[in-house]
Amino acid sequence: MLSEVMDVGFRSLLLDYKRSIPLILAFVFGILYVFEWYIDIRVGTFSLSSYLESTMLDYFNAMGAMAIGIGAINVYRIHYRNVSRKRPYWQYSLVVLVMLPFMAIISVLGGRYALDPKGAIVPKWIYDNTSVIWNYFYWCVSSVASSMMFALLGFFIISAGYRAFRARNVDAAILLISGFIVLMGNAPINSALFPFFDPIRAWIMDYWNTSAMRAVTLCTAIGAMAYGVRVIFAYERRPTLAGGE
Amino acid sequence: MIPLDLAQIEFRVISGRMAQGVLLLIFGILTIFALEFSKRRPEKVKVRKIPAVEAIDEAIGRATEMGRPVFFSPGMSGIGALETLAALSILGDIARKTARYGVPIIVANRYYTVYMAAEGIVKQAYAMEGKADMYQPEFVRFIASAQFAYAQGCLGIFQRERPAANFFLGYFYAESLELAEAGFNIGAIQVAGTTSTVQLPFFVAACDYVLLGEELYAAAAYVTRDPKIIGVLFAHDLGKYISFVLLIVGIVLITAGSKFLLDLLAK
Amino acid sequence: MGKPWYEFFETLDPRWLYLLTALCIAIPVAVVAPSPLSITQYTKDMFDYIERLPPGSLVVLSFDYGGAHAEIHPQAILVFRHVVKRPVYIYILGMWSDGPVMADEIWKSIDHTGLDPENPTRLITKEYGKHVVNLGYLATTALIIRIFDTITGAVTQDYYGNPITTLPLVQKFNGIKYASMVISFAAGAPGPGTYLQYWATKKPPPALVFAVGLPGVSVPGYLPYYDAGKKGDIGYIGLINSLRGAAEYEILLGELGLSGAPQAMNAQSAVHYLLVLGIILGNLSYFAKKARGGR
Lengths: 245, 267, 295
What we know:
The structure holds three protein chains of three kinds. By secondary structure, chain B is of the alpha/beta class.
């Protein structure tokens, strides 16, 4: 924002309002949110800090809810084209086209946060029956599929570890040795077989790992602050954020 | 309704945050200094080579030669996360290059708000290259909001469309290794960047080039080579020097038995 | 002339590794007797702290995980059972929408017998509403901030749809500020860092302490917080590290078979050894190939 005003001039900014309005909004709200973190402005019982946290969050949630519709339209558009043009694996797209509205309706009527579980508006028998269907699809399909994807990580770790842990140079060798010690220390059966690995593992994790993690976290946080400054003061010249070059 | 009785207005400093505020103010002043310095003396402010950023061109070139698409994931966080904004910055640059070379791009999004931003960026990138007619709606996709449903969708894209270059930039969770390993299995060249300290090791193991933590933010500046943005990188480094000095002073004081700095920073 | 031995390992199809992994998991799980296990300090710290909680304390259990919960769900079962056994009151909430659902599943499956918070020498059956309340899903940060000061001001009903003002426990403790301990079972974000940010600054330790159950990948990142918490600063006084931590906790609790975690330790050891073997063979083949002039 500051750079725009300094470089381009205030008048030009007003004329190019399509570009300047997002910049002004980003600047004002960026500064406001930073300011209210440190100093709470109170007028009687009104607190700016609480207002920003509660009411503004409601606005963000409302915008997000609208965006869900746009996302669903995009999903439909892509998968409909796959089916209509019989692209490879179009059958999976057909499943998406059928299941998306099906699960949406079932969730509204009988899901965990259903519209009317007590049956005040929608007849209770509808909730009772659809919740059985929802529970089946959620616990026996969706939850199990998520667990399956999480379990895949175990297999991928083996293949990635087998491929990546090579002592190609000194750094890789140090990584390999410390990784080996931590692996052996973590293997539960080694409490009985090779108990000496555990104190060495604990030493590596408590001193080397903790200090390295602190360093990476600190530098990332400073980087985030610097990036925040860039966004608030509109140094980011990206198409959506700054309207293009 | 917001009451506007200005006679009752009061400013209340929130306890425990003043030290942070002062440090932020110092950092802000340093940023302005760094910006002015880099504007006046751009030859003095150089950015070291970041191999992962240099590899972006290599990856897109490979995709062009093989006639296969480029895949981009802006991470698992929403539009409010700085990592996502940094990733979208780099997306603009990648999208312009794919438009220039005529390579399809697939941007897979987890959040609808990020999807809308990515769609705008890619459309505009193609327009800037004079290739607006080449843009297709399938380039930018909303996959799913659920974490592993998104991962499954991306794995499906890898299997069906077999991209030659994968970019994983943003904040990732447990699905990072799945994406990287599945990408490796189809023979794609992979560039990753995340600030998640937990997922970095998986990317390092499975990807060809990785932006570590803050390098993701630096890369967004590096691709533009704008002296003002490089000035902010300079401010970033100055902030790190201040942290280093505070660390040394703190260690010395604590070892000597004084909690002065600790108490000062807790104010 | 056949391929040299090192070429076989250099070009090994990863599907063989996947098959070996599957066997290393499936076969040991069938072995019922759990192998011996040492107890790590951070698990012991959490267990000991809960054991020492004064009678009548309020404990908050935050279920911040979802469907893919193989590492965290056993931890949650064990800690929930432990806290029910102790003479304390319990609030349940979650920053993930699936969290309170997981808590409900556990509440329905565990034994409700425990010491009476009002008379710690007496064993009773803990009742929902009087000793335990499930406050449900906290969708926004504003709710998390507000619920610390007042529960009735933040939510209108509990997870089961009961009006919040009718619950005896809420009438007794109308706010998280009355809690002595917050235990979060966190799969990712939003996670335990959120509570440290908003609650620990309002009621710092030792008045309110925090502990966490984490999946294995997250533990290295949170060890600095455990380090700080041990010293009395804002951080965690205890930490359960993935399924192994759950197995350790089950041994400490003395209710073997409750979560199934110790039985999985054999499989975990087998896979660890498979990976170590793979690393050794991979490096041997790499160096052999290099020695013979390969790249």
